[in-house]
Amino acid sequence: MNIAPEQFELIKEQFKTLKERSEFYARKFEGIDLSDVQTQEDFEKLPFSEKDDLRKVYPLGLQAVPDEEIVRIHSSSGTTGTPVIIPYTQQDVTDWAIQFARCYEMAGITNLDRIQITPGYGLWTAGIGFQLGAERLGAMAIPMGPGNTEKQLRMMEDLQSTVLCATSSYALLLAEAIAEKGLRDKLHLRKGVIGSERWGDKMRNRIADELGVELYDIYGLTEIYGPGIGISCDEHSGMHIWDDYVYCEIIDPKTGKNVPDGESGELVLTTLRKQGAPLIRYRTHDLTRIIPGECACGSHHPRIDILIGRTDDMVKVKGVNMFPAQIEEVIKFTDGASSEYQVMIDHLFGKDIITVFFETTATGDDKKRVEEELAFIFKGKIGCTPVAKGVAIGELPRSEKKTQRIFDNRY
Ligand SMILES: [Zn+2]
User: Fold this and answer.
1) Quick one: pLDDT at residue 79?
2) Which 3 state secondary structure label does DSSP give 36?
3) 303 CA distance to ligand 1 centroid (A)?
4) Which of 137, 208, 348, 388 fits a disulfide with 374 by CB distance 3.0 to 4.6 angstroms?
């Protein structure tokens, strides 16, 4: 996607002093005079930033303003080693709130809504971002945080929450609890804002049907403000990204070359206004594409498609590349398979074995038929045959955070 003139102005403006303000960029762009970056082509030659680069300057090496201007930090989860710390100025916090409030507005949420926030509060950017946006909009925030389903349902009923903010797996867990307790008619929910992770249509439809809400996907990552840099609209055709705050590129994850609009690849983001920790050509490892053309909703903000996976989720089995999104497809087309599944990859007796566990209401011969159908569709779409095993609804784990679905036990 081409850099718009007003975006390029903001990029050039920050480039004027970036290397003086930030030791991180002084090193990254060593030998490059940033005032030479005058065209799209020049920009696309700049080196990428990776999460690992950010880790290396732990704790505060990304900070690009004096200490007195930093008002808070957030940190991305450190499950795989050293965390990344992102410092924010007051302006960064305000800019985040503005973008998040816009997201709520895009979803048709107003200051009369009561927004139940179930993502976690703390170092992570999730809960606090949903809260900032709700307050900026003037809606009533109900800051629950995750867990304690009983209490969630009680507050939802007593406070007449109209909006649920959650991860898709927690939304599903709540939807199932609501169905089980027959609470649906006592609730006032009308919208769901779901943190972007790749999730299938079956799961989406179940959540929407059981909660009786319209669902919106919100996008963002801790390194770049947090959730709220983009959201889907009423057309539900991709997510609009706030291009006055971030510039999007799509690259081929293998070659690092930019791909034309419409083609899938890895999303790379550049912040246009961020002060505390600006990011230039940051590789998100999220796989998506720019949706060409204008959206029927009338918004001029560009769209990225719903995420199809992560570059690091790609697994190679029996010589074929397998993406989680493809497995979603298989589940979607298998008559009798419910939304939840888990894939185990093992290496036994010198061969890779793929086992797909999926939830189904079918039993006996009927279940056998669903298993056979799933294996057949899997073979057709992905190119190798798995062992398909149907299990009862509720048997596979639900989690309050993102659900891991593919387990590679080979190494
Ligand atoms: Zn739209």
Assistant:
1) 59
2) helix
3) 8
4) 388
